[in-house]
C-alpha cells in the first residue's frame, strides 16, 4: 500500500491455492451457513492443533468472547487482566458485566493468579484472562481457584494458534477458550475466529448462540446472534493451514535473529515452563515511555513502523472504573512490538536491529 515497513503483514498463500478453495464454494453455490468449507476447516484445525474440542468457527475473535461472556458472565463481575488487547475488556462492558482488574505478573505478563482470590466478591461470575502473546496463564492455579469459588474460566487465546502447554493444546484449558484468525494473526482467515468449548452442555449453547439460536429452520434453542464464519473466510483458512510449518519457522527465525543481534539484553517475553510457543510476536521492554516514543520516531524516519502494543493499560480505559494496576501500567508504557511477519527480509530486520542498537 505504501513503503512503510509494517509491524505485521498477513501471510498470503499462493493465489492458486486460495482460488482452488474459492472455486469449491462457487461449485457448491454456497457462501455461508456452515457450508462444506467451514466444516472442513473446523475438522482440520482440530487435527492440526490436537485440541480436545472441535473449534466453532466464527466471523472474528471478538464474537466468541462476547458469546462466552453472555453465557457465563450473568451480568456480574468478571475478574480480568489489564494487559491485553482492548477487546478483552470491551466485550465485558459490551455484555453488561463489570471488569474487575487484577494486576499482572511482572515476569510472565499474564494475570497474577496470586491476586485473584482477594478480588472475588459474591458478584463474581467468571475469570477472563489472556494468554498474552501466546504465553500461557498459570492455568492450573486459575483452575483451582475457579473450582474453589465456583467460577467459570474464559481464556482469551487470540494469540495462541499452535501453542501447546505441557504437551496439550492451550485451547484445552478453561470452560471456553477463544482465538482470533484476524489477517495479522499467525493463522488467519482474513477476519475470523473460533471458540473452543471444553464442556458438552456449554458447547451446544455456544453453538446455538453463534447461529441465531437455530436448531433447524423454525426451531430455536434460546437467543442467539450471527457469529458464523463464511465459506470465503474458510477458503482462506484452508489455503493458509497447509503452510503452517513454514509460517511458524519464519516467525521463529525472525524472533531468534532479533534476540541474537541486540547488543544489550532487553526484557522480552518470559515463557512459562512447559510452553511450546508460536513465536508470533516480538516485544521489547524499554526504560521509559519517552524512550519508546524516541524509538518510534527514529524507526519511522527510516520507514519502519513499530507499535505500542498493548497500550494503554486496560484499567485506564475511559469507560471503566479506574482501578490501580501499577505493573501493567508500567509495562504498557514501556513495551514495543517490532515487525515480524512471514516475508520480513533479513536486510530490513538488520536495519531495525541497527536502529535499536544505536
Ligand atoms: C488478545 C486479543 N483478544 C481479542 C482480539 C480480537 O480478535 P478479532 O480482531 O479477531 O476480533 C484480539 C485481536 O487482535 C486480540 O489480540
Number of strands: 12
| Side-by-side strand order of the widest sheet | 1-9-8-5-4-2-3
Instruction: Give the second-level CATH assignment, the architecture of the largest domain.
Output: 3-Layer(aba) Sandwich
How far apart are the termini?
A: 29 Å
Question: How would you portray this structure in words?
Answer:
It is a single chain. This protein is of the alpha/beta class. It has two domains: 15-242, Type I PLP-dependent aspartate aminotransferase-like (Major domain) (Aspartate Aminotransferase, domain 2); 244-357, Aspartate Aminotransferase, domain 1 (Alpha-Beta Complex). It has eleven helices and twelve strands. The chain has helices at residues 15-28, 36-49, 63-72, 87-94, 139-149, 200-209, 231-240, 244-261, 289-301, 326-334, 346-357; strands spanning 56-58, 77-80, 98-101, 124-130, 152-156, 164-165, 168-169, 176-180, 193-197, 275-276, 283-285, 335-337. The strands form three sheets. Strands 1-9-8-5-4-2-3 form a seven-stranded mixed beta sheet, with helices on both faces. A three-stranded antiparallel beta sheet has the order 7-6-10, with no helix packed on it. The radius of gyration is 20 Å and the shape is globular. The mean pLDDT is 96. It binds pyridoxal-5'-phosphate. The site of pyridoxal-5'-phosphate has 14 residues, from helix 4.
Architecture blueprint of SSEs:
Blueprint: H1 15-28, H2 36-49, E1 56-58, H3 63-72, E2 77-80, H4 87-94, E3 98-101, E4 124-130, H5 139-149, E5 152-156, E6 164-165, E7 168-169, E8 176-180, E9 193-197, H6 200-209, H7 231-240, H8 244-261, E10 275-276, E11 283-285, H9 289-301, H10 326-334, E12 335-337, H11 346-357
Parallel strand pairs: 2-3, 2-4, 4-5, 5-8
Antiparallel strand pairs: 1-9, 6-7, 6-10, 8-9, 11-12
Helix pairs in contact: 1-7, 2-7, 3-4, 8-11
